[in-house]
UniProtKB/TrEMBL annotation:
Membrane-traversing stretches: none
GO molecular function terms listed in the Swiss-Prot or TrEMBL record: serine-type peptidase activity
Any one GO BP annotation for this protein: proteolysis
Source organism of this protein record: Rothia terrae
Identification of the protein by name: Tail specific protease domain-containing protein
Residue span(s) of domain Tail specific protease: 273-461
InterPro entries associated with the record: ClpP/crotonase-like_dom_sf, Tail-specific_protease
Length: 463
């Protein structure tokens, strides 16, 4: 039994986060995912000031000489202390919770190991104790972990490639080795990566590639395609598309791409420059006639104006209105925003599926049914038709959960990507972090979303 459960089972723990330490969006996200904390602690968790002598999670500034955020457990006083100076520090201590649960130590800090061999053992132990879906994916955890018995490469660059290949075997786009120094800008193209390059499926009108003369069916040259293919973890239905997305990511001030026409007679190069997303980059609204509204939503990124746009559209609806909501290629974003938009299409308190979280000690916790209520402001009064495909993923699947199956909602297209996510992050080396999924979400009928995705009501390929 994990150290917290030995002391806290059957009790209540109070999470007292100073309001100035984290944003309201982060606080809302933590409250939405309170079952994750309950699973690790083995008790009910409340976001409020604790009564006298009650178990608590409190926050204090870092001590002088502390080089990193730290999480400390005092079993005698039943107090968990986050030493954090800012929001980033606080979030790092949340990620440390699973690490502290599985170790025999009473404090852990958010700092990387010194050697690649230590990093290898850390990756193995964190994944074995946190990753929720070995069984779903029919992966033997013991066999997977045996690969870490071999000496790890001593050079950090070689180690990164070695570790990425091992993590990719888990087939989860949320679980990966990431380079912290790259934030990454993803151009708006879709394609599938093969050893010969990326065959483009989508080139938006007026994008840089479109202006240069590149079209769907063209092949983008990729340096070392095999490396991307062997280090990409994803479900089978989206694997080549996720690999293409990673290979297209721009991690510098600009990146030059070269593409070839299907018959090889033309070659075109163009530059992509990272840019801040604005509203028109992620959403299109087309009034098709008096009753039908088409909305293409490419991301749940919380850009200014997105929620207001949806509320305005809903405010003008009637019982005769029909919305065609195109979520193909939408790989997610903010769970908080997904829930806010979801509430616009609900008509009563609704079960939106369920979730189970890992406890940090290698076990899945209980399955929690999840409910939400309709928006108290504008609501969509008509019918809703949602278009999905294998790149409909992560927070976008959370949006669909609870809507699918309602009498005024239909879902059409292809099976979604299958990613429950709720990843935590652990530093493993210089500018390297391990990101690990912690949850499995389920549809209302009990079918897991993780790995298998959400099946449409009407299955058909959508061009």
């Amino acid at each position: 039994m994990c150290k917290f459960k030995k002391v806290l089972q059957g009790k209540e723990l109070y999470l007292d986060i100073p309001h100035q330490l984290i944003s309201e969006d982060i606080r809302t996200l933590l409250e939405l995912e309170v079952e994750e904390f309950s699973t690790v602690f083995g008790c009910e968790v409340y976001f409020q000031k604790p009564p006298a002598y009650a178990p608590r999670w409190i926050f204090r500034p870092r001590h002088q000489g502390m080089d990193a955020a730290e999480l400390e457990w005092s079993p005698g006083t039943k107090a968990l202390i986050s030493y954090a100076d800012n929001e980033d520090d606080a979030l790092q201590t949340f990620s440390l919770l699973h690490t502290l649960a599985r170790t025999d130590k009473n404090s852990v800090e958010y700092s990387p190991p010194c050697t690649t061999q230590e990093a290898a053992y850390l990756i193995r132990d964190e994944v074995l104790n946190t990753f929720p879906s070995f069984e779903l994916r029919k992966i033997n955890p013991v066999q997977w972990a045996k690969q870490f018995d071999e000496p790890a490469p001593k050079d950090w660059n070689e180690f990164k490639y070695w570790a990425q290949k091992l993590i990719a075997q888990l087939q989860d786009a949320h679980t990966s080795i990431i380079e912290n120094r790259f934030s990454g800008f993803v151009p708006p193209y879709r394609g599938r990566l093969y050893e010969t390059g990326i065959i483009l499926d989508r080139v938006p009108f007026n994008s840089d590639a479109d202006q240069a003369g590149v079209a769907p069916g063209w092949t983008v040259r990729v340096e070392d395609s095999l490396r991307w293919l062997t280090t990409t973890g994803a479900t089978p239905q989206q694997y080549r598309q996720i690999a293409a997305r990673k290979a297209l990511t721009v991690n510098h001030d600009y990146q030059r791409f070269t593409a070839f026409s299907p018959n090889g007679s033309q070659q075109i190069s163009w530059d992509e420059n990272p840019q801040q997303l604005i509203l028109r980059d992620i959403v299109d609204v087309i009034q098709m006639d008096d009753c039908i509204t088409y909305i293409g939503l490419r991301s749940f990124s919380p850009v200014p104006g997105l929620l207001s746009l949806f509320k305005d559209v809903c405010a003008s609806s009637s019982e005769y209105s029909h919305m065609l909501l195109d979520l193909r290629g939408n790989v997610g974003g903010s769970i908080v925003l997904a829930r806010e938009l979801q509430s616009l299409f609900l008509r009563e308190k609704t079960q939106i599926g369920s979730a189970s979280f890992t406890d940090g000690c290698g076990h899945l916790g209980p399955v929690f049914a999840r409910y939400t209520c309709p928006s108290s402001n504008a609501r969509w009064l008509g019918t809703l038709e949602i278009l999905i495909d294998s790149m409909t993923y992560s927070a976008t699947e959370d949006f669909i959960l609870g809507l699918k199956g309602l009498s005024h909602v239909s879902v059409r297209g292809e099976r979604t990507g299958g990613g429950s996510g709720r990843p935590r992050s652990v530093p493993i080396g210089p500018d390297l972090s391990l990101r690990i999924s912690t949850a499995i979400t389920f549809e209302k009928g009990g079918s897991p979303v993780e790995h298998f995705g959400i099946e449409p009501d009407v299955a058909e390929p959508l061009s």
